[in-house]
Amino acid sequence: MKIEFDQECSSCSGTGLYSGIGEDKSTAIVCHHCKGTGKSHFEHHYNEFTGRKPKHGIKRVYQSNPGIGIGENEKYSLEDFGGISHSDWDADKGFPQGSEMRIFTCPAWWYQGVNYELKPNWDECRLGGTFSSCNEFGRKHECWRKWDKENNK
């Protein structure tokens, strides 16, 4: 499908002329955006949305990725990274507490990118550097326990 129309040139407000810092009040140059026509042509090609399409081969879906390399290997399973099964995502079940990347991030790191309203504002989170350099990062499981308690899990 295609949407197509002419609209007023936003650079010259439809005049076809442009007066900038190099022209005084009584002079203008031909607008280089619309070539003096005063209009710009808009054309957008798209596929009409008929519903979410399947993506084959996906086993697990994550709400976000804060910069962690996600993938199965001899040390980690896909579940270790949090997330939900593809079938749960297809069924719009949402991301429950516990689906965060808890072994790799702390609550502040995770929720800064996922939902800032849920990011904890604890005194111990005033790190001033990177999340992974926080004094509490090695004990992030305790931070998650505290976050769960405060968020009724």
Description of the molecule:
Helices cover 16% and strands 14% of the residues. It is α+β, with helices and mostly antiparallel strands and 153 residues long. The protein has two domains: 2-45, no CATH class; 60-150, no CATH class. It has a two-stranded antiparallel sheet with strand order 1-4. The protein has a two-stranded antiparallel ribbon with strand order 2-3. The chain is elongated, with a radius of gyration of 26 Å. The two termini are 47 Å apart. The mean pLDDT is 94.
Structural class: alpha+beta
| Number of distinct helices | 3
Q: Estimate percent helicity.
A: 10-25%
How far the N terminus sits from the C terminus, by CA atoms, comes to 47 Å
Portion in beta strands: 5-15%
Number of strands: 6
Total number of distinct structural domains: 2
| Secondary-structure element order, N to C | EEEEEEHHH
The largest β sheet comes out as: 2 strands, antiparallel
Radius of gyration, taken over Cα atoms and rounded to an integer in Å: 26 Å
Low-confidence stretches: none
Q: What spatial form do the alpha-carbon principal axes imply?
A: elongated
Strand order of the largest sheet: 1-4
Mean pLDDT: 94
How is this structure best summarized?
Helices cover 16% and strands 14% of the residues.
Main attributes?
153 residues; alpha+beta; 2 domains; two-stranded antiparallel sheet; 16% helix; HSP_DnaJ_Cys-rich_dom_sf
Topology, pairings included?
Elements: E1 2-8, E2 17-18, E3 29-30, E4 39-45, E5 60-61, E6 84-85, H1 86-90, H2 107-114, H3 140-150
